[in-house]
């Protein structure tokens, strides 16, 4: 059936398949889809070929893209320099090791695809496993010997289709994002700051705000975001781990998939499209997934809230900062079409649900103990505020103002124990241990070396 379809001798219209999969159905895109699926049939490897995603994303990001003009480069480099100086006045987090970058849409796509594929791979493999499992379960016994090669074929084709969908999403995102940290997770390597000038200019259109103020505000936000992830070195791994843990728990409802395959009409793939878009093939979230999702939502809210508070303090000189800030918050709260597509594809929303509450908590901490003590809370995952702290910032402030509690009897006993251990180790050491061993031996025995 697959070979007939790819050779053009099938009832299923390739453009309808593309539409059902959420891909463009124009002739050029359909031709690219068919070529990628043919390549997948000939691929002998396992896993997903993420170059398919990169190629699709780069093609979309290149459409309608414009080069960075010398004027844009000069203005944004100046804005980024001023942003660093302003942040130095209000934060106590590490400075960036590398200078910020100005990226075209295609460059942003290329730079961020490794993280997107890392996030999406567990879902792609889950889908491929479900397809091969259904294939093996439904195959007649006399065909069981053929199932190994057929299963590999289905994995490759399913992976290629998923990769093209991811490429479509990331390519569309490249036309919407204004910076490297715009979607809340650290997409750039080495915690580097980056701006996309073409999209930044589109962001400012119709706001009735001077362009230089928009540039300065967004530059401060991006550098604050990148600095935080450089300062809290554990934070990036924490976020990515929560996302991949959530994604690994995604399974496919094979019974629903079987029903869909039985009733599927090649001439009308709308049911397939609805099943994919609605998420009907994905069972409810497991308990471990809900826990990973809760951790991720809290972390996203903490990061975005901190960035909001720090940016507000650093941009106090900008007359229109509140207007730009409100536009940013609304944009983050609603998301764009590509972000919604990613949510459907991976089953995960990347929008902080309690952004305003988190920002209020960080502001209360700043007012109570100052920016240095506030930023010290990012030093370790054990001291960073929790979801309960977002709900009750007064209790967090009270703890911070109370300082380190006096050690109790158990703490004192442990301190004495470790102090004695260290003293004992320090007195003997390598040479002391040898001397002690010699003193316990027969005095006529040869010395211990």
From TrEMBL:
User: This protein's superkingdom?
Assistant: Bacteria
* Positions of the UniProt region annotated as Disordered: 420-449
Q: Which Gene3D superfamilies match?
A: Zincin-like metallopeptidase, N-terminal domain
Q: Pfam families from the entry? A: Zincin_2
Q: Where is the composition biased (Basic and acidic residues)?
A: 438-449
Q: Which NCBIfam families match?
A: putative hydrolase (TIGR03624)
Protein name per the record: Hydrolase
Q: Which organism is it from?
A: Subtercola boreus
UniProt lineage: Bacteria, Bacillati, Actinomycetota, Actinomycetes, Micrococcales
């Amino acid at each position: 059936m697959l070979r007939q379809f790819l050779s053009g001798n099938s009832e299923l219209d390739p453009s309808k398949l593309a539409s059902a999969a959420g891909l463009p159905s124009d002739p050029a895109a359909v031709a690219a889809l068919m070529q990628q699926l043919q390549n997948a049939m000939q691929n002998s490897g396992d896993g997903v070929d993420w170059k398919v995603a990169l190629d699709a994303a780069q093609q979309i990001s290149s459409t309608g893209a414009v080069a960075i003009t010398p004027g844009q480069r000069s203005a944004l480099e100046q804005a980024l320099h001023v942003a660093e100086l302003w942040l130095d006045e209000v934060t106590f987090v590490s400075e960036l090791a590398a200078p910020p970058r100005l990226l075209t849409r295609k460059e942003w796509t290329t730079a961020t695809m490794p993280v997107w594929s890392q996030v999406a791979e567990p879902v792609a493999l889950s889908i491929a496993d479900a397809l091969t499992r259904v294939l093996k379960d439904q195959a007649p016994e006399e065909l069981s010997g053929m199932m190994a090669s057929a299963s590999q074929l289905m994995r490759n084709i399913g992976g290629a289709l998923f990769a093209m969908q991811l490429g479509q999403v990331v390519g569309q995102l490249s036309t919407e994002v204004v910076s490297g940290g715009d979607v809340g997770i650290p997409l750039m390597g080495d915690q580097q700051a980056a701006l996309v000038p073409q999209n930044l200019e589109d962001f400012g259109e119709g706001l009735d705000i001077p362009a230089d103020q928009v540039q300065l505000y967004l530059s401060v936000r991006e550098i604050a975001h990148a600095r935080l992830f450089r300062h809290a070195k554990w934070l990036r791994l924490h976020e990515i781990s929560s996302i991949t843990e959530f994604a690994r728990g995604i399974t496919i409802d094979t019974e629903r998939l079987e029903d869909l395959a039985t009733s599927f009409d090649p001439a009308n793939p709308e049911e397939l499209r609805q099943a994919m878009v609605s998420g009907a093939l994905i069972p409810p979230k497991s308990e471990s997934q809900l826990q990973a999702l809760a951790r991720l939502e809290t972390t996203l809210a903490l990061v975005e809230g901190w960035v909001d508070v720090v940016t507000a303090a650093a941009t106090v000189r900008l007359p229109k900062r509140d207007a730009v800030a409100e536009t940013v918050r609304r944009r983050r709260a609603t998301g764009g079409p590509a972000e919604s597509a990613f949510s459907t594809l991976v089953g995960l929303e990347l929008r902080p649900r309690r952004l305003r509450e988190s920002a209020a908590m960080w502001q209360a901490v700043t007012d109570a103990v100052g920016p240095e003590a506030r930023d010290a809370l990012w030093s370790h995952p054990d001291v960073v505020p929790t979801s309960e702290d977002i709900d009750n910032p007064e209790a967090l402030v009270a703890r911070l103002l109370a300082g380190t509690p006096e050690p109790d009897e158990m703490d004192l006993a442990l301190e004495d124990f470790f102090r004695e251990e260290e003293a004992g180790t320090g007195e003997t050491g390598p040479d002391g241990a040898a001397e002690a061993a010699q003193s316990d031996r027969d005095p006529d025995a040869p010395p211990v070396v």
